[in-house]
Design brief:
Layout: H1 3-8, E1 13-18, E2 21-26, H2 37-51, E3 58-63, E4 68-70, H3 75-84, H4 88-105, E5 111-115, E6 118-120, H5 122-125, E7 132-135, E8 140-142, H6 156-160, H7 167-174, E9 177-178, H8 180-186, E10 191-192, H9 198-205, H10 210-217, H11 230-236, H12 242-252, H13 255-265, H14 269-282, H15 288-302, H16 306-317, H17 335-340
Parallel strand pairs: 2-3, 3-5, 4-6, 5-7, 6-8, 7-10
Antiparallel strand pairs: 1-2, 8-9
Helix pairs in contact: 2-4, 3-16, 4-15, 7-14, 9-10, 11-12, 12-13, 14-15
C-alpha cells in the first residue's frame, strides 16, 4: 500500500503485513499525522500481536502524506478536554501513550522508524525509542512544547538529558527543530537514508534483516549546525536557572546566542523552569520508565495551569501568537511552583500494570 492509498483509508493507522514486515502507517495526513488516543491504541494492539508472531521479523512505522511522520499529539483535543471537561481523557491518553513509548523501547523485534519530514513531540515518542531510527534530508525533529506552555514528554527528558553536553537542554528550552545531521548528533536517530531510497528500504525489510538493509542504503547528511556551537552551548545551558541561562547567552556576544536568548525569552516562563528542572532530575533516573513516570506527574499538573490552555489558544485556536503567560516573567516563577509539578497527581503514578515505577514508588 502506498502512502497515497493509505491516505484514502478511513483508519487512523493502517496496519499491514508485507512479507516478514509489520508496517504501521500513521494516517492523518491533513494533521501531519498528529497522534490521537485511538491511534495509540491501534499501534499498541498491533505491537502486542506482532511481538509473538513468528511470521513477523521486523516492525516499521511511517507517516501518510508528504509532510512528515508525525507532528506530535493532538493538543487541540487535549485543550478541549482540560478546558471543557475534567481533564481525565487527557490523563488516559498520556497513560496509554507513555506505555506505548516504553513498549517501543523494549520491543523484542527490530523497530524501524522512518523519521521523514516533520517529527515533533509525540512523533519523536513513537519513533526515537525504536531500535533503528532513520532520518532523511527532509527530516525536521524537535520538541515545541514550551511554546504552548507545556513540558516535553513521551520520554523526551530521558533522551534530551542524555544528549552530548547541554545540547538537549538547548533543544528543550528553545523548542528549535533540527535537521538530520543534528538529529544523529543528539541521539534522536541512528542512520541517514536519502528520501528516494525509502521505498527500497521498506521493500527490503519485507524479507531481509533490518540492520543489513539500512546499512546498504545509508548515506551521509549535509553538516548540521550544533557541532560548531558546542562550546558556548555547553557553557550557557549549564546554568541552574532560566535567568542565568539567558544572561550567559547574551553575554556570549555572538549573533546566534543572542537570537537564541530572544527566542527562549518568548516561551512560557513557568514551562521553561519546569522543563529545566525535569531535565536535571532525569539525569539521575535509572531508566526510561522512571522518566516517563516523572513526565506523567508533570503532564498532569501542567494541564491544570493557565499557561497550557493559553499557549494552545494563542498558537492553534485563535492563532494570534500572543500568549499571556502567568507568571509573566522568569523571576516571578517560584521554587515551590516548580516543585509542585513533581508531586504525585490525584490519580496516582503510572502503575505496575504498565511496568512503570519511580524511585519513590518502586
Amino acid at each position: 500500500m502506498t502512502a497515497a492509498t493509505a491516505a484514502a483509508s478511513d483508519a487512523e493507522v493502517i496496519v499491514e503485513e508485507r512479507g516478514r514486515l509489520g508496517l504501521l502507517t500513521l494516517n492523518r495526513p491533513k494533521a501531519i499525522n498528529a497522534l490521537t488516543h485511538n491511534m495509540v491504541e491501534l499501534i499498541t494492539a498491533a505491537l502486542d500481536r506482532w511481538a509473538d508472531d513468528d511470521a513477523i521479523a521486523t516492525v516499521a512505522v511511517v507517516g501518510a502524506g508528504d509532510r512528515g511522520l508525525c507532528a506530535g499529539g493532538d493538543v487541540v483535543g487535549l485543550y478541549r478536554d482540560v478546558t471543557e471537561a475534567d481533564g481525565m481523557s487527557a490523563a488516559a491518553f498520556w497513560r496509554d501513550e507513555y506505555a506505548m513509548n516504553a513498549r517501543i523501547a523494549r520491543y523484542p523485534k527490530p523497530f524501524v522508524a522512518i523519521q521523514d519530514g516533520l517529527v515533533l513531540g509525540g512523533g519523536i515518542g513513537v519513533s526515537a525509542h525504536g531500535s533503528h531510527r532513520v532520518v532523511t534530508e527532509r527530516s525536521k525533529l524537535g520538541f515545541p512544547e514550551v511554546t504552548i506552555g507545556y513540558i516535553p514528554d513521551v520520554g523526551a527528558t530521558w533522551l534530551l538529558s542524555r544528549a552530548p553536553g547541554e545540547l538537549g537542554t538547548r533543544l528543550a528550552l528553545s523548542a528549535a527543530m533540527i535537521g538530520p545531521a543534528d538529529a544523529l548528533l543528539v541521539g534522536f536517530a541512528d542512520s541517514f537514508v536519502p528520501g528516494e531510497r525509502i521505498p527500497a528500504l521498506l521493500k527490503g525489510l519485507e524479507s531481509e534483516d533490518a540492520a543489513t538493509v539500512i546499512a546498504l542504503l545509508a548515506g551521509e547528511p549535509e553538516p548540521g549546525v550544533l557541532a560548531a556551537q558546542r562550546v558556548w552551548t555547553d557553557e550557557a545551558f549549564a546554568g541552574s536557572s532560566i535567568p542565568e541561562i539567558l544572561a550567559q547567552l547574551r553575554e556570549h556576544g555572538g549573533a546566534e546566542a543572542s537570537a537564541l536568548a530572544e527566542t527562549i525569552d518568548q516561551k512560557s516562563p513557568l514551562a521553561l523552569a519546569v522543563t529545566l528542572e525535569a531535565l536535571r532530575r532525569a539525569r539521575d533516573l535509572f531508566d526510561l520508565e522512571a522518566a516517563l513516570n516523572q513526565e506523567y506527574r508533570v503532564s498532569r499538573h501542567s494541564s491544570g495551569t493557565p499557561d497550557f490552555a493559553e499557549g494552545i489558544r494563542a498558537q492553534l485556536i485563535d492563532k494570534d501568537r500572543n500568549p499571556r503567560w502567568n507568571p509573566a516573567s522568569h523571576r516571578a516563577v517560584t521554587e515551590s511552583q516548580v516543585a509542585a509539578f513533581f508531586e504525585v497527581p490525584a490519580d496516582g503514578d503510572l502503575g505496575p500494570s504498565t511496568a512503570f515505577a519511580s524511585k519513590e514508588t518502586a
